[in-house]
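Write out a sequence, fold above all:
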Amino acid sequence: MTVKPGWEGRYFEDFEVGDIYRCRLGRTVTEADNIWFTLLTNNTNQIHFNNEYGKRTEFGKCLINSALTLAIVAGMGLAAVDEYERIITTSKAPWSDGVQRSDHPVWKEKFGRAMALVDAAVALSARGGQLYEEFARRSVAGLEPFSAERALRLNNMYFMAENQVWEAIELMLRSAGSRHSAEGSRLLRYFRDLVTSRTVSDQFEL
């Protein structure tokens, strides 16, 4: 895959399968996103979509669906791994007589660990979705209630997955080199976005 500088001025025949075009635009997660995702996943917890209900809770407002937060965080982790791979395949390891970082055992270990952490977070997210479907099905069928313990089990699975992505991105940022942790770098932006997620959501961790 090749990262192209921009799409302006290109004709149809200039585009190739696998080309990547980076977008500089940000995207704010809105209340509508939260409600749509909650309804799409058949989540019936009113804390995610009923403002009047949310006002009567200890939080005083609706909360972002944890599964939505995790989906975004896992996506950031996968994107960060792609960016880190680009960095280590295009830069030399220091004090190594010109050896590519991707060929150096130290960076191989870091890249492998980062990939494993993000893969584990994605797998944990998928498992959380499976459990949610099972708990909801049994609750609707009148077999077992969707208890607070089950809700906390899912919530803490999401926090664990977020922590794995955090560890992976922190590891990649520290080993990518100073140029790739400077202001405006893509890896640093992923790190900052994840910091924002953690400072907002972790206050609800139990």
About this structure: The chain is about 55% helix and 0% strand. Residues 202-206 have pLDDT under 50 and may be disordered. The helical segments are 31-40, 51-55, 66-88, 105-140, 148-175, 186-201. The longest strand covers residues 3-4.
